[in-house]
């Protein structure tokens, strides 16, 4: 297991640099557009590192300094750092000379997206709308907008480079290169460049192999799917839950005779597809199911209770799972928001989140404890857990550690005792249980109730 203290301890040193120049408008973008997505603590870490950029001026300091500046513990700094990395605001590098020597971390700040890029982004703009609501979203959009001018009323009179500057004869260029090696100022240095924040979606969020397999090369040549188009397809598929075969139809609908795929038209087509499929309801990550590429039980008939559970967790959405656990009642907004937050911030796949929900419900008296859920989710994200099977195996391996996390808030308030098991549990949960928050809570009874509710869902579907 990768505890935060195995990756980072207080005596480890750090220094800060910036990928590009940070401006005052970036502060507004971070505060008003990014903060609703990453939270105030992650923003505070970014702003603190921004201040350290000038204060340290290339010097090194220990993480004790960062803890003192932020008045919080190292686990919090570590978890908030992961959010900044995930959304593309921070690149982290580490140098570890010897195993017993402190590490040196390089925190490289990345400027946020420019407002126009943010609002054009397929995912970030939609999730901001979900977080702040329609009224505030429109207000924010208007705040960062600039007045539109009808350029058709004007005639462009801009001079070209060749109109203003005289050409240099080729022989002078050759002579100049032979006489000088180039400006000494640039030796070993790079120009400062503006490299905005960009978050990364792995290629495995979308099955491009299946997408291309059913696509005629005559209708859509491979060269038409440029890097930008491919990135747009990934984001739209992830956001709207568009399967590869449906995406083929959308691409065929927007490609022009010159084999150019209009990304804006593809965005509109994706939104229209989603509205038709879901009646205009905004996309929610909690409605997703496990991608086919990461289902281990897709073409297998379950032979054990464990395999039945695995197959079900691969084919049900987190929202539906919460609903079935609640006996058919709609999940609370707080629970949905918690699950959606970890899916977005930690980029966990739906099936993995289902295992997390099932596990936490059994460990904490059928409640979703925010801090407990986020802690396990962060661990699974670092472990790059992708399948239901991997999540189950990790839950079993780390059972004692996870139980210690669950018991942390109860230290000093009660004595932890064992629960007497009355029947054999599934292999992946066959672990040494400790009593959850409620002394009268029976893990086995809770597990049986969960199985009954999920069995009812299987029968009805």
UniProtKB/TrEMBL annotation:
It holds the Pfam family DnaB_2. Residues 334-393 form the DnaB/C C-terminal domain. Residues 12-169 form the Replicative helicase loading/DNA remodeling protein DnaB N-terminal winged helix domain. Belongs to the DnaB/DnaD family. This is DnaD domain protein.
């Amino acid at each position: 297991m990768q505890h935060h203290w195995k990756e980072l301890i207080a005596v480890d040193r750090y220094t800060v640099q910036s990928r590009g120049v940070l401006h005052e408008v970036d502060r507004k973008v971070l505060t008003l557009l990014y903060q609703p997505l990453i939270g105030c603590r992650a923003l505070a870490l970014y702003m603190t590192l921004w201040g350290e950029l000038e204060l340290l001026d290339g010097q090194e300091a220990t993480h004790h300094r960062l803890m003192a500046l932020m008045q919080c513990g190292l686990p919090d700094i570590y978890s908030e750092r992961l959010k900044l990395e995930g959304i593309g605001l921070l690149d982290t590098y580490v140098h570890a000379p010897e195993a017993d020597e402190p590490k040196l971390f390089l925190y490289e700040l990345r400027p946020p997206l420019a407002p126009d890029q943010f609002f054009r982004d397929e995912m970030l703009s939609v999730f901001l709308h979900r977080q702040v609501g329609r009224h505030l979203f429109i207000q924010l959009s208007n705040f960062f907008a600039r007045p539109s001018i009808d350029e058709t009323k004007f005639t462009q009179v801009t001079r070209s480079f060749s109109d203003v500057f005289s050409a240099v004869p080729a022989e002078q260029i050759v002579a100049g290169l032979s006489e000088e090696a180039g400006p000494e100022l640039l030796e070993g240095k790079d120009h400062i460049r503006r490299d905005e924040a960009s978050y990364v979606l792995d290629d495995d969020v979308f099955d491009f192999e299946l997408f291309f397999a059913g696509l005629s090369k005559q209708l859509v040549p491979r060269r038409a799917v440029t890097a930008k188009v491919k990135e747009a397809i990934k984001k739209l598929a992830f956001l709207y839950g568009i399967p590869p075969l449906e995406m083929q139809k959308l691409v065929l609908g927007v490609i022009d005779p010159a084999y150019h795929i209009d990304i804006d038209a593809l965005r509109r087509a994706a939104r229209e597809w989603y509205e038709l499929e879901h009646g205009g309801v905004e996309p929610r990550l909690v409605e997703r199911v496990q991608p086919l590429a990461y289902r281990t039980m897709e073409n297998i008939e379950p032979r054990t209770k464990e395999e039945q559970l695995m197959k079900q967790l691969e084919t049900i959405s987190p929202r539906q799972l919460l609903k079935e656990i609640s006996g058919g009642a709609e999940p609370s907004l707080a629970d949905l928001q918690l699950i959606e937050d970890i899916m977005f911030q930690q980029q966990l796949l739906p099936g993995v989140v289902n295992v997390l929900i099932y596990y936490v419900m059994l460990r904490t008296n059928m409640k979703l404890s925010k801090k407990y859920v986020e802690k396990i989710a962060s661990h699974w994200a670092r472990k790059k857990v992708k399948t239901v099977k991997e999540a189950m195996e990790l839950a079993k391996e780390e059972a004692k550690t996870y139980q210690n996390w669950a018991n942390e808030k109860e230290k000093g308030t009660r004595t932890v005792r064992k629960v007497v098991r009355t029947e054999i549990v599934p292999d992946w949960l066959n672990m040494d249980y400790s009593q959850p928050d409620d002394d009268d809570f029976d893990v086995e009874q809770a597990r049986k109730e969960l199985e009954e509710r999920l069995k009812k869902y299987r029968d009805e579907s």
